[in-house]
Each structure stands twice: as C-alpha cells, then as structure tokens.
Amino acid sequence: xxxxxxxxxxxxxxxxxxxxxxxxxxxxxxxxxxxxxxxxxxxxxxxxxxxxxxxxxxxxxxxxxxxxxxxxxxxxxxxxxxxxxxxxxxxxxxxxxxxxxxxx
Length: 104
Description:
- By secondary structure, this protein is an alpha/beta fold.
- The protein has helices at about 15-25, 40-45, 60-70, 90-100, and strands at about 1-5, 30-35, 50-55, 75-80.
- Helix content is about 40%, strand content about 20%.
- α1 crosses α4 (about 90-100).
C-alpha cells in the first residue's frame, strides 16, 4: 500500500512515516509512506495513493487537502497527535484501521 503523509514542509513527517512503516512491517502489512509539504500535495496525491494522512500541525488546512484528495478518490484522515511521533506507529496504525477500511 502507498500512503501520502502531508505536513507543513514535508520534513517533520519523516519520523512519523518511519514509525508507521516499521509498525506495519511488524504486523506483516506492506506500507510505503511518502512525505510531502502542503505545496506539493495537490500534484502528488494524483500519483496512485491508497490513503492520505494529514499531520496534526496543519489540521486547519484539512478541508482544502480533503477536496484535493476527493478529486482523485483518495481517502484522507487527520493524524491524531499521539500518532505523530517516533513511537506513534502503533497508535497511528490503529487509527487507520478504525477510520478506514484500507487495512483489515
């Protein structure tokens, strides 16, 4: 599966992305997470993603990002603060399972 994680500049999300990938791997789930900033999101979301994830610090931009994701039928969720950290992978994976049917 391919996930797109968007944050303000596309850099702070690397830690959360790695934590999610590592956690998914422990659960035998193949996930690749690409990080981008809000400026690149509209174009990048068109590249075949299964899910878009919005970092907590840009939740105020969620409606705009959601409309862009909706245009290409990519589900999108806001990451809760507990899932956006080096140890937040388990929490974020659980959130994704609860809020989507991407991962069973």
